[in-house]
Amino acid sequence: MLRFVARRLLYSVPVVVTASFILFVAVRATFDPLAKLRQGRDPEALRYQIARLGLDRSLFEQYVLWLKEFVRGEWGVSTRTGGDVLPMIGSALGTTLQLIVWGVLFAALLALGIGVYSAARQYSAGDHFFTGLSYLGIALPPFWCGLILIQALAVWPKQQFGLTEPPLYFVGLHSPGQSGVNADYFRHLVLPVVTLTVGLVASWSRFSRAALLETLSSEYVRTARAKGVPGRRVFLRHALRNSLAPFVTVVALDSAVLFGGLVVTEQIYAIPGMGRLFLDSMLAGDVFVLLPWMLVVALATILLNLLSDAGYAALDPRVALR
Amino acid sequence: MKPGTAAAAKDMSQGRIAVRRFARHRMAMAGLLTLVALMVCCFGAHWVAAYPRNAQDLLLGPTPPSAAHWLGTDDLGRDYLSEILYAGRLSLAIGLCVAVLSTAIGTLLGAVAGFARGWADEVIMRVTDLLLIVPAIAVLALALQGLGSSPLTIILVLTGLGWTLIARVVRSQVLSLREKEFVEAARVLGASNLRIIVRHLLPNLLGVVVVNMSLTVAAAVILESTLSFLGFGIQPPQSSWGNMLSQAAGLVGTSKSYLLYAPGVAILLTVLAVNFVGDGLRDAFDVQRRP
C-alpha cells in the first residue's frame, strides 16, 4: 500500500508541474501583476517588484522563481487586501473543508439510503419517485437551485409567518459574534450544503442503486439465499458490503469536483471559502492569490483521486495495488 | 409480437432498428418534442414572441404575471416571456455548437489516440489528465477573462474543455475495436489506416458518440449559464438564461421574485429534455438488446 501511494505521488509530480506551468502562463497573460503598483507611481517599488518576480527575464525563469517561493511557503502578498497569501488561503481552505466534509457526509449517506431503498424495492412507487427526483436533481442548474432554496426555505417562511428571523440563514457560516459548532452554525450550514450536493445526491443515488442491483443478481448472493441466510442479512452483509467499494470510489472522485461547485455556492451564500476567494481574486486580477489557489486545488484533487484508488483496494480485497 | 414483425426486424439495418427503438422510448420522444418546441420558439422568437425584442414600457415597470404578460414584466417593463425566448437563442446555440464541436474534435483525437497508440496516445491522454485536475469553472473563468467573453469565445473555450470526455470514451472503445477480426480482415484486404478508421471504426462508435453528444449539450447549457451567472459569460446587453438569472439573483425575497423562476425553469427543461433524449439514444444503440 505504502509503495503504491509513493509511486502514484511520484507519477503525479510531472502532471502537477506541467499543469502549474500552463496555469502560470495563462494567469500572467491575463493579468498584469504590477497593475496596482503602476497606479502607485512609486518607481522604486515597481523596480523592486520587477526584480523580485524576475519580470525582466524569460517566462520559464519567472515560473521557476515562483515555484521555488511556493515550495518554500513564501506566497507573497495579496494586491487586493494587502495581507499575506498563505494564511489567507489557509483560512479559506478551512472554511471550504467544512462545507466539503459536511456535504460529502450528507450526500453520501442520503444517496446510499436512497440507493438501498430503491434496490430493495425495485420498480415500486418509491423507486420510481426517487428515479424521477434524480433526473430533476441532475438537470437542476446549481446556482438557480440555491436561489430557489433561499426563497422557499428562508425568505418565504419568514414573510409568511411573520418571524423575526428566517428559520435557516443564508449569509455566511456564523451569525455575528457566534462561533464554534452550535445550533446557529447548523442553521447556516443547511442551505449551502443542500445547494452544493443536490446534483451529487442525485447521481450517487443512481449509482448506488445500480451497484446494489448488480451485486444482488450475482451468484454468491443466490447461494447465500439458497443456504437459508435471512434476506436482511444477505442484503446487508453480502450485497451492500460488496457494492460499497465502487460507491466509495465514485464518492472520492466526485468530491474533487466539489471545488468547482463551491465557487457558485460560496458566492450565493457569501461564505468566505476557496470559491469566494477565487471569484474575488479574479475580479481584482490578484495574481498572487490566483496562482497558489490553482496549485492548492490541483494538489487536493490529486490527493482525492489517490484516496479513491486506495479506498477501493481497502474495501475490495480482490484488487491488488501495485 | 407477430412472427412477421420479427422477420422484418431481422432484415432492417442497424440504423432503422435504432430509429424504431428510439421512437418507442416514450420519455425520449417527449424530450425530443420539448427540445424541438424550445428551439422553434427561441430561434423563431421573431415570429413567436408576443412582444419585440427589448421593447421597454417604462411607465408599466415591473408587473407580476398577467394575461397580457404571461410571465410578467421586468424593471424596464419588458415582456419577460419574450425576453426569455430571445435569450434562449444564445443559450441553446452555445449548447449545440459546443456539443457538435467537442464531439468532432473529441472523436477524432480519441480515435487517433486509440488507433495509433504510442506517443500520440500518450500526448493526447496527458492533455486530458491536465484538464481534469483544476476545476473546470476556474479554468473557464480564467480563459474567458483573458480572451474576452463574446459568444464565439465562449463556444471555443467550452469546446476546449468539452472534447476531453468524448476523447476518453472513444479511445477506450477504439482500443478494444481495433483488435476485432473485421479490422484485421480489412487490413489484410489492404485498407489504409484512414479507411479503417472512417469506414470500419467510426460506424461502430456511432452509439457512444451520439449519447455523449447529448450529455455534452446538457453540460454546456449548464456551464454557460453558470459562467454567465458569475459574470464571466454573456454580458449585457446580450442576454442568455444564465445572465437573466444573474440579474434576477438580487430579487430574492422582494416583490419581484417571480422573475427568478422562468429562466431557471427554461434551463431545467432544456437539460431534462436533452438527458431524456440521451437515455433514449443509449437504449436505441444498445446492440446487446433485442429490438
Report mean pLDDT of chain B, rounded to a whole number.
Answer: 85
* Radius of gyration of chain B from CA coordinates: 23 Å
CATH topology of one domain in chain B: MetI-like fold
Which structural class do the helices and strands of chain B define?
mainly alpha
CATH superfamily of one domain in chain B: MetI-like
Helix count, DSSP H or I runs of 4 or more residues of chain B: 12
Helix content estimate of chain B: over 70%
Q: Secondary-structure element sequence of chain B?
A: HHHHHHHHHHHH
What does this molecule look like?
The complex is a heterodimer of chains A (322) and B (291). Chain A has helices at 2-30, 35-40, 43-53, 59-72, 85-120, 125-139, 142-161, 183-216, 219-226, 231-269, 274-284, 287-315. By secondary structure, chain A is mainly α. In chain A, α6 (125-139) crosses α8 and α7 packs across α8 (183-216). The longest helix of chain A has 39 residues, at 231-269. The radius of gyration of chain A is 24 Å and the shape is flat. Chain B is mostly helical and 291 residues long. Helix content of chain B is 73%, strand content 0%. Chain B has helices at 3-11, 14-24, 26-43, 45-48, 80-116, 118-133, 136-147, 151-177, 181-188, 193-230, 241-248, 261-285. Mean pLDDT of chain B is 85; it is low at 1-9.
Question: What keywords describe this structure?
Answer:
heterodimer, A: 322 residues, 12 helices, flat, B: 291 residues, disordered N terminus
Fold topology:
The complex is a heterodimer of chains A (322) and B (291).
Chain A: H1 2-30, H2 35-40, H3 43-53, H4 59-72, H5 85-120, H6 125-139, H7 142-161, H8 183-216, H9 219-226, H10 231-269, H11 274-284, H12 287-315
Chain B: H1 3-11, H2 14-24, H3 26-43, H4 45-48, H5 80-116, H6 118-133, H7 136-147, H8 151-177, H9 181-188, H10 193-230, H11 241-248, H12 261-285
Helix pairs in contact in B: 2-12, 3-5, 3-12, 5-6, 5-8, 5-10, 5-12, 6-8, 7-8, 8-10, 9-10, 10-11, 10-12, 11-12
